[in-house]
Amino acid sequence: MKHEMEIDGVEVTFSEGETILEVAQRHQKEIPTLCYDARLEPFGGCRLCIVDLEGARTPVASCTTQATAGMVVKTATETIEAYRKTLLEMVVSENREVDVDALRGYAAGELANLRDRYAVHTPGITGETSGTIKADDNPFILRDYELCISCYRCVRVCAEQEGDHAITVMNRGFDTQITTEFDGLLKDSACTFCGQCIHTCPTGALADKKALRHAEDTTQPRVAAPLPDIEKTRTICPYCGVGCSVDMLTKAGQIVGIHPAMDGPANQGALCVKGQFAYDFVHHPDRLKTPLVRGDDGELCEATWDDALDRAAEGFRKAHATYGRHSIYGIASGRAPSEAAYLMQKFIRAGFGTNYIDNCSRA
Question: Which of 278, 295, 336, 358 is the least buried, fewest Cβ under 10 Å from its Cβ?
Fold first, then answer.
């Protein structure tokens, strides 16, 4: 059932259960947030999404306030905007830096974008930097908590989306710190290195170590803008049959990082450790570029594609003639394109009439 409310003087409709923020976003009203991720339960921690609600004694957090029929909401009054600017000044004052390289993660530029929007370049609030860098020898995730704003998006996405509960919060107030159980290393925790925490972080406090190998010397604060000299291509992760959508980041023809597609129908921003980080094989110096066949001496030697394919075809024909069709078993590679996986199963099922086909990604 549809209901009506007013936002900034405009009558809009909404459905039961929607929050003010969800209704506003659907009607192209820009309300700033830092602790909000549409995939997570509303948290109401950053208070940047406060709005003026007619009849309420104080501003309300739009992300946690349910829309009700007849509401009259103003999203950007002079007072509300002043509150937001003060809140941003407080947040920025605690961080070592705000401008971070966009390769740190999908949402890494959110704080910088809001700082620019509200012109918080010379904050009147100064103080001690909160958070401490956590040295961690894992190859995937950088934990730079001097950039942390305690929005808890990383903690919540790990619990609510992944169900891993690998990261949590310790201490209170200014001493609040994101950590793992017993304040240990990520590799010794329940972390599966899916990268979800990286791509929900709005400040780059959690960052993609592998992507940062290709970072520019100068910082790029705006993750929403095109990355310099970097192309983004939508594709499908080939590692299994789920069909996760990813945005592949390339520079000069080389893969420099992977962003999960937040609008991917199969994954909605989620990836496993393979889909997120296992792409080095594409440009690895040891990758074979020429077919190899085994000679009479038992050694592998380079051959043309025609010779290699003829040798393979002869082997299949011989096995089929000698031992029958059930002697042939195909294993597709998760590192091959999706089209190659399709051809592989077609080769086994249509060519030999069996279902003896599997994929190494299940191992």
Answer: 295
Q: Structural domains in the chain?
A: 2-76 (3.10.20.740), 86-283 (3.30.70.20), 292-362 (no CATH)
Look at residue 250 in the predicted model and tell me its pLDDT: 93
Answer yes or no: are the C-beta atoms of 261 and 269 closer than 8 Å. Answer: yes
Q: Regarding beta strands 330-332 and 300-302, do their DSSP bridges make them parallel or antiparallel, or are they unpaired? A: unpaired
Exposed, middle or buried by CB within 10 Å (0-12, 13-18, 19+), for 315? exposed
Max Cα–Cα distance, the chain, nearest Å? 89
**Partners of 208 in beta bridges:** 141
Q: Do residues 205 and 141 make contact, with C-beta atoms less than 8 angstroms apart?
A: no
Using one digit for the tens of pLDDT, what is the confidence trace for 271-281? 999 999 999 99
Q: What is the H or E stretch that residue 83 is in?
A: helix 78-94
Q: Is the pLDDT of residue 63 over 60?
A: yes
Q: Closest by alpha carbon to 257, among 280, 241, 239, 236?
A: 280
Note whether 281 and 256 are within 8 A (CB).
no
Between helix 78-94 and helix 110-117 the angle, nearest 10°, is: 130
- Residue type (1 letter), 300: L
Tell me the β-bridge partners of 258.
248
Question: Is pLDDT at 128 greater than 80 in this prediction?
Answer: no
Contact 118, 211 (CB under 8 A): no
Q: How far, in Å, CA of 162 to CA of 164, rounded?
A: 5
Give me the pLDDT at residue 225, please: 43
- Which residues in 203-227 are b (16+ Cβ under 10 Å) and which e? bbbbbbbbbbebbeeebbbebeeeb
Indicate the pTM of the whole model: 0.85
| 270, 263 Cβ separation under 8 angstroms | no
- Give dist(CA 98, CA 222) in Å, integer: 11
